[in-house]
Amino acid sequence: MCSELRFHGETTDLGVTDFVKYAYQRNVRQLTMEWLTRRCRDLPRCIFSSPALKHLTLNGSFKTSCIPNSVWNFPALETLSLTKIRFGNGLDLSLDLFNQCVNLKDIILHDCSMYGVDTFSICAPHLVNLTIIETAVFPEVFKVVAPQLETLTADGFSSDCQFLKLSTVESFNSLKKVNLSLLNKKYEKGSHVSLLLDLFKIVSSVKFLILDVNIIESLSFRPDQLHEPCPFNDLKCLEINTSMLKEKDCIPTIPVQVRNYLLGNSPNATFYHGFTS
């Protein structure tokens, strides 16, 4: 039995297929694959089926490597990290790739593209940590069914200025920490606040909430939309992340209305921020 194998090279079907067969025949537990190519390639289906694999990392380049649309068969998989990977191949469809990965605990989707995907489902009964960052193109909806989810880290905007639309069929009752940011500077301030408030409702059970300074500025830009009750039921800590500010930047002021909206149901919550009062 082999514990870990790494592949770094071109995505020629023969080379990848031979490497994967070698790895899976030896019941490899951890597989990392990295490649550099500007040519669009569909990754071989054989990559996505192994009874023994526990940790899978796929690092593409230029988002030219496309995942097959068939369901993955990884009954033992616990951690999944995907960087610069394309899903859906531009087709108008919904994807539910992970429903047979029943032991998944950690998922990282970094700089991936879901162009043309209607609903991207993540149904994982044991998922604890979910990270969705620097996304190139969002699906119309991210459907997350993860009753044990504890940590969510997400950028609210994709590179093409879509806003993250998250849905679930049940509450995230185990949610402890949420870290949200708006890193794309191309968006028009205030245009997305209603979608941001919808996202707050989805994660309303969180205990430790981190929001970046761009979110606070966006809420401050449209205080007229903060008339609804605070969605957060029992915050223990609210932190404003100002790390993206440069030394020469002025430290902004957090309006009372924004603060009251976020902490309305949690008067005893700890509040960390770099804002002026």
TrEMBL record:
Domain F-box/LRR-repeat protein 15/At3g58940/PEG3-like LRR: 25-215
Superkingdom of origin: Eukaryota
Protein name: F-box domain, cyclin-like protein
SUPFAM superfamilies cross-referenced by the UniProt entry: RNI-like
Gene3D superfamilies, per database record: Ribonuclease Inhibitor
